[in-house]
Amino acid sequence: MAENGPNDAESDEVTGAPVAEPAGAVEHMPTAECWRLLEETPLGRLALVRADGTPDIFPVNYLTHEGSLYIRTARDSKLLHIAHHPVAAFEIDGETEATRWSVVVRGPIGRVDDDAELRESGVRRLRSWSPTHKLFAIKLTAQTVTGRRFAKTGGRAGPALAFESSAAPPVPPNPSREQARAERPTPIPHRTPAADGPAGDGPAADGPAGDAPAG
């Protein structure tokens, strides 16, 4: 079963650094509770990537089965998006008398082409609120499941600041490159070329100077 992923906490949109939240303001829900809410909620939002890389989103009915979400579909743009980018995110949200919550599922998505899986998952019994005939099914396999909940309040407002033109985070220096620049290069070993002797001299003998070759 999918576990809560690393993207639970809020982070600064520019630097990526974690943003501190008031103690007790946001509760990160356990995976089991996220699945319970997914099982109880009939409608969610399916986010896909178009062939040209731009995002698209669809409100869809769905059901859960063995760690996956099953969605009925027509032969429409969803199938085209999935063919080019077979990944998706899925979101539901809701509220109780005292809290508001949301759950996000991420993972690979694809067409269901096995008759036994269509039968066992129960997706054939799934009723779509859309008047369009949904003859096919797609499956989102959950890789991460994250959920957040916080108490109902009147909301919070504060100053809104414009981003500066230089708001992009600085590129950290490469330590190995900086160190290499500070160190002196290692000399390349070499030999001094031998001086040429008188014409007719042969190669130097291995033994002491003046030794005659062995007979």
Element layout with pairings:
Elements: E1 27-28, H1 31-40, E2 43-49, E3 55-61, E4 63-65, E5 68-73, H2 77-84, E6 87-95, E7 99-111, H3 115-121, E8 136-141, E9 144-151, H4 175-182
Sheet-strand content, in percent, reads: 25-35%
The average pLDDT is 82
Helix content: 10-25%
Number of helices: 4
Radius of gyration over C-alpha positions, nearest whole angstrom: 34 Å
Can you tell me about this structure?
By secondary structure, the chain is an alpha+beta fold. It has a domain at 27-151: Pnp Oxidase, Chain A (Roll), CATH 2.30.110. The protein is 15% helix and 28% strand. It has four helices and nine strands, in the order βαββββαββαββα. The chain has helices at residues 31-40, 77-84, 115-121, 175-182, and strands at 27-28, 43-49, 55-61, 63-65, 68-73, 87-95, 99-111, 136-141, 144-151. Strands 1, 2, 3, 4, 5, 6, 7, 8 and 9 form a nine-stranded antiparallel beta sheet that branches. Strand 2 (43-49) and strand 3 (55-61) form a beta hairpin. The longest helix is centred in the N-terminal third of the chain and has 10 residues, at 31-40. The radius of gyration is 34 Å and the shape is extended. The model has no long low-confidence stretch (mean pLDDT 82).
